[in-house]
Amino acid sequence: MRVLVVEDEQLLADAVATGLRRQAMAVDVVYDGEAAIERVDINDYDVVVLDRDLPLLHGDDVCRHIVELGRATRVLMLTASGDVSDRVEGLEIGADDYLPKPFAFSELIARVRALGRRATAPLPPVLERSGITLDPNRREVHRDGRQVQLAPKEFAVLEVLMRSAGVVVSAEQLLEKAWDENTDPFTNVVRVTVMTLRRKLGDPPVITTVPGAGYRI
Question: In the record, which positions carry 4-aspartylphosphate (predicted)?
């Protein structure tokens, strides 16, 4: 899942981004509304965590712009105001969910995951394919009943491949979904991660390399 965090309180924004990355999400961070517009115009995000009171361009305007793009991107709006009318107004302009500050980080994670599921075709909460089960909420992977310990990026790559349901996923698509925008597009990080993932999942190999196209399970 790829997430954009838009929050002008930099310490909070960076803390949220760090926490989401620990949940195997690819996260970009910006600190004002104009920068948010630039990112959503370039990148395809599953979820945008959007502070409402932003400098340079108000969060409401950013939300409207995201809606006008017509993508499947979901918006979780944050605000320091707990007033019901503010929440209603935010939802009416196109936000998909609303979370007042201060919030419990566990609730933020749950809401981001729920919105991420709504940004894609409906799938069962636990993914199963080729003897592998992947539980995104518990961040657990099993193969033939054996638990497999994966690093966050390995988990993210496996989740993207399993959600593709046998369709070939290119290295570029894996970079977009599992890494943030600071990753060098010419790096071999995808190949190395897939190699490590294959080794951890064990034999017989379940991830197939399609020459010149990408990978699939």
Answer: 51
